[in-house]
User: Fold these one by one.
Assistant:
Number 1:
Amino acid sequence: MRPSGASILACLLWITGIEAYFGIDYHAKASYFNFQVNGNSLYVFGLNVAANGDIYFHMSGPVIHTWLGIGFGSEMKDALMIIAYPSANGLNTTISTRLGSGHTEPVYTPDFEIINIYNDTYAPNADTVTDRGTGTIISHAMCRNCTTWPTGSLDLHSTEQPMIFALGPSQHFGSDSVEASIPRHSLYGQFTVDMTKATNYTGWYGRVPAPNIPDFIYPPNDTSFASFGTSPSFNVVTMSNPMPTAHALLMCAAFVLIFPMGAVVMQFLRKTLWHGAIQIVGFVAVLAGFGVGINVARQYNKSKNFSSGHQVLGLIILAGLLIQLGLGLLHHAIFVRTKQPTIIGRIHFFLGPSIMLLGLINIGVGFNFAGNSRMNIPYAIVVVAIALIIAGSTGCLVYCRSRRKYKPEPPHPQFGQQPGYSDYEMPRQPTFGEQPPEAYEPPTPYSPIGHFTIDSPYTPLSAYTPVTPKTWKKEDITNWPHWPHAKDDYQ
Ligand code: HEM
Ligand code: HEM
Ligand code: HEM
């Protein structure tokens, strides 16, 4: 076989000792795994094990994937994992060693020492995120004591040592903490490594695997890797995790849309049954969101103990809603029998808005908790817009009502009998204040919309002095229930 130009060049460089400068180190054996999609490298892992058991590794992949992980083992459970993600400022790489216990976030363990290696000639971007934090996460380090761990070990003589790898979802994420909570992967898979090609059995020589693209590229490029000494990937799965989004959507639907709608229906239309039905739908949405929340919570270290502020507040809100629902139903059941306002209704009236406010606050807290604080801006805009719509329509309603103040009417004019009569209003239902309300859950002076059993159009049979808030006498209001609970149920 005729030697290729590249091998002759490599040989010459090796003899002259220049090879180290150009990034090919013949003393440090190495295996390489390059996972590609459509010809583009998505994940690279290079491994060299020194005779003393130190593991030198290079791991790189596009920063759009948030984090890159390698696991020694055939599945998450019992694997020793090394995970790399951008630092808090997005420019450097944080490397974290973790132990897996199943299909949940692996837990950081300080038993292994990671030593970042910055000074290889062929790795100018070692342990940084290239292109000012927008390119490739490059982790370039040595892991000490990493060949054995409490639940497994690397078989340095195996030609098929099982390995797993994974990439995070496309999300903004960065932290300097080795214990940072990472979001669940969007892609994972397995491969095997021929450890005999990666291990220096004699001498302590160890070195982070250099780029191994067969033809020299100058200047040396720290992402030019080709698979060598590893199997192709298998059991590769791409998965999205819709659960946190579903949790957020259900909670937002309940607290931003459904509950306010139910309150508005009660406030303006006085339809208790509609109100009850709408609020029960909201409550079911919160229950479903809660179920999804528990599922999500179990997967992450930050939430598996249910002790975070977001979760504790969430549980308080859920308990409050349960009480609120019970109070609403109880008040209504008593009211239907007695036709009297109840203290239970009063509590329900004040507890409702408080819980709704807490729910709105907890949505913001939830976005922060999920590392999604950027969502708080659009969220705040939507909440303010909805609040303005409700306030605006309330204002309009109050204004329209005040313009329709009742004036005692002259006898009905026949059409054409009173030319020029300009102050004539169509007969209409009187507004509150014009005559004393009925005893049964009448609207109070503060009720925005009155509800009367008098048929409309209505014209008083005989003239009377309208009672306005200014002219009320004590006896006019003796029978009124007290504010604000006079405006209880209307069927
Ligand atoms: C927040 C962190 C993580 C969570 C919540 C998580 C969760 C899960 C879940 C739920 C599955 C099962 C998927 C299915 O049924 O299709 C799974 C599988 C898998 N994950 Fe993870 N994972 C995390 C981190 C990692 C890391 C860091 C790696 C690799 C370094 C990894 C590698 C794998 C692999 C290879 C599988 C398939 C093999 C197996 O069943 O264990 N995961 N993971
Ligand atoms: C978790 C579910 C519920 C929530 C969050 C809730 C919330 C509220 C709120 C915010 C108000 C004040 C509305 C206003 O400004 O006028 C209110 C009033 C009221 N709700 Fe509910 N409600 C719920 C369930 C129910 C149910 C199931 C019923 C009965 C069918 C009910 C009956 C009433 C009544 C009668 C009032 C008027 C109380 C008064 O003015 O004293 N509610 N509710
Ligand atoms: C009224 C109560 C609650 C509201 C309004 C609420 C809302 C939210 C929101 C908006 C997020 C952000 C999700 C994202 O950006 O992907 C979130 C995250 C989260 N919530 Fe809740 N939540 C509530 C209760 C709970 C409860 C009771 C639990 C657990 C028992 C829980 C567990 C979680 C977890 C684990 C996350 C983080 C998800 C991640 O990191 O991807 N939540 N919540």
Note: The first helix runs from residue 5 to 16.
Number 2:
Amino acid sequence: MQPLWLAERVGGLMSLVLLTVVVLLGIAVSAQWRTKYLTEARISGLHRWLSLVIIIFLAIHVVSTVTDSYVSVEWLAILVPFTSTYKTNWVAIGTLAFDLLIALLITSYLRTKIGRKAWVVIHRLTYLCWGFATIHALGGSSEISLTYALALTGVVLVAVAAVMRFVRPPAVIVEGHPKGLPGITSAGE
Ligand code: HEM
């Protein structure tokens, strides 16, 4: 196996797995799932930290893809969809996931400036970003077995977590209001 090909593959698969874990941790934060050890602060810290670690693996994935002379993917294709000569459509979906991820990271750092409501709406695009990344991996991969196993495991986990989160949102008691009275709201609203 060529080193660049290996880097492309490891970078891509690690990015996909981490993105899935970040989505699951995000759902856990908004659903207020926690344990004695995994406190809300730890889950939320891990969610933020891993979302930055993804960038390292994505950088490995895209740089090794573009510099690998075996396939013809241009530098522009990292940011501009449909500009890759190689697997144009599948790469474009990966580019859209990449652009969305950058936008999500930037808006999270500007959260206090854009306001919580706008941030929540924008942050829901994380599902779209993760969906694009999964479709890109499934369609773009030339070595499907491991990619399929990881991508489909991620789909099942996120689907189950999302159903649990949105079908039965947790009740949050706003300070000073006992249960059942005005002041009880849905988490993440
Ligand atoms: C969030 C963004 C992205 C994620 C999570 C991601 C992840 C993946 C994964 C898991 C694979 C399959 C790896 C394998 O089985 O070999 C893959 C393939 C591929 N990715 Fe990405 N990718 C992303 C963005 C991009 C971008 C922006 C580009 C453009 C430079 C790109 C170029 C490619 C190419 C060309 C392949 C196919 C390689 C082959 O022929 O097997 N990806 N990606």
Note: The chain has one domain: 3-186.
Number 3:
Amino acid sequence: MKRAIVLILALLVSGCIDTTLPDLTLELGEGRTDGPVCGPDKLQNFPPEQLRITLIDVGQGDGIWIQTPYYENQQLESRNIIIDAGPSGNVPGTSPGGAVMVDYLLTNGLPPGERIDALVISHAHEDHYGGVPALAAMFEIGRYIDPGFAANSSGFLAARGAAQADVSKVGGQSQVPAIPELVPRPFVQTDLFGQYVESDLLWSAAVPPSGNTTDPSGTDVNNTSVAFAIRWGGKQVLLLADLEDEVEQELINANLAGEIDLTSAVMKVAHHGSSSSTSPAFLSHVYPNPGSEEWAVISSGRRDFSGVTLPTEETLANLTRVLGEHHVLSTENRDDIKSPGTEHGDDTIIVTIDADGTVQACYAQ
Ligand SMILES: [Zn+2]
């Protein structure tokens, strides 16, 4: 009798579960990058006076969609900026990031043929440029920017060519190299994010800082990355692409010299959470007084780099020490327990900043 009552109660309860509610198990979970799950409102509405930054889960790589705020007419006022296009998926062990991005954009408000106001490819690595042909085939590209360093990569040149062909079709602008075509030097304001969002170019190098152009290492190419600081609602977001320690040190120097202010509410962690970026010193400049509104977001997948997967435990520990639990989100969240080939597309991260400075970050699932 007792068992029958328990069974009936269980059936009643399961029948009442509202599947649109956030997954509280994950929200309060013990996983290293578990965090809040976006409610249905966040997913369905892009309200006025909000800056929205979406790290689309492209697997190992970066694919970031920025929607700038509008007051009355989204179509006229809000800009769609894409920073990096994810990998193509043609390299063994990688995800079809470009296709994942196209799918996400189509499902979340960009109809086929819609204008992407600007596409920035941060640097000449496949996990950032591989998806360009997929994006160019589905959408119009109004403006194209990269650092100007091609790293002897024919794949990168082909991706740039596909973007530039799209740009010239609509009479748009190609600004390569970003310095001096977008702005004359680092640490000055750009017009890239529209009339309401202030932005500084933090970095872009047409030649690696090491000077090595003939046989550039991964680090050399990473350190050419186009990076930005953008501001809305009195809050700043750092978009650091794959910059490594040497350039983070340049940014610390510029911060100390008063050329920039690194203090931020949100950081797109550099280089997928690798240990060659995000030093404790850099973090102390970005988050001098961390509270409950500071976040770090990471774009990564479960790709094995000689026994290392990103983000590293070291980077996560450094970030969590500063920001606390549940404020470090990663598109690689729990990918270790997923089967290969299913790690992309399910841990997209949405960051919103409202005009009053309210900052929220959550997983779109
Ligand atoms: Zn990368």
Note: Residues 1-25 have pLDDT under 50 and may be disordered.
Number 4:
Amino acid sequence: MDPGEDDFIDFDWHDSQLQSLLLAADKGLTSTIQNPLTNSPTSEPPSIPDIEDLITSTSPYARHRRRRGFLSVSDLVRMEWCGLQFHYTLESLEQRTDTPAMKVGREIHQALELEVHDVVDVEIHTREDMWGLRLLNCLIGLEEMLITGKTRELNVFGFIHDDNDLHSSSSSTDRYLVFGVIDEISRDPPISLSFPTSSDITWRLSDTKTRVHPHLPSPTTNTAPKFQMMLYKHLFDALTRGPQHFDHTLFFSLLRLNPATGFSHALHAHLPPTPASEPWTLNTLLHATLTRFALFPPLSPTLTLAYLWQRTMEPLGDVAFRHDEGVLREHLRRAIGYWGGRKMDDVMKGVEVKEAYRCHGCEYNERCEWRARKAQELADGNEETRTE
Ligand code: SF4
């Protein structure tokens, strides 16, 4: 999708980076967030390989994500803006530069988050620390939901099955671990004395998007945010089923983590006491997190995109829509088919002529083969019309 239109952060992490720990504003709660991927700026246009050269014997997942062990939610929805742009960016050796609009959008999101809780930095030293911090983020965010009726930047994760492999039935080899960060969940009605899981309470998912232009996007341009939100709900709802429905073994195996490993002192200092006063391990922290998720019902099927104008922070309006599991599954079949390397053609397409406006801000504009081909087809069609 167009990074200039919406704030759209890729939630990749680096093992060695400092992670942020949030301190909730009230009641001594703590919550954590990760730092977004930082891109090194470059003034040179990115080099792009020929389309034919991009089809290799290994899958995009094997080349770009297997080492880290998971796909981000962004990895599964970004191709909605232009599949070819997504593909070029993934295969380009140079990292993409954040646009000014993306930077402003990120700052606005950080400011919104600070309205809910404060932030402190925690130094992490190991991969186990990094995932321990993510799980701690979940625990604290869920506690914040129970106590205040609202949280922001909630970490969620789960498995997506590759429906393209018709010969398999959910074996561990065709499931991908997916990780994402939900912008906001709030209780409806807002916090009261009633028990949070009672049937008259719903939990609503919303996502604030910032816009460069002072108007709502057209319905055709916000399909990626809609899939993004449906995927968040899908992941959250699966986590509410509890620890017995979560494949712990696959989780640790894909991430190449030792579940019996503890944490470094810096992270340990932020963990709550364990019930049996034994040191936390990744396994016990995962179990505690999944148990906490199970306190909640599935999220409301009504999802809301809230748009703000970047220049003034003025609300531009909300777009509410219903979760559709069938539509989401069809999108995921296409996205996972690409990452698995068997259905890459479904994604590796440029935009249609009527969507050519998307090419204007694209960094591959001048060398894009698809765009050149479409332009030639258009010219040939005009020539035929003239000679008839
Ligand atoms: S120039 Fe247009 S078709 Fe080509 S990659 Fe960019 S957005 Fe897609």
Note: The first helix runs from residue 51 to 54.
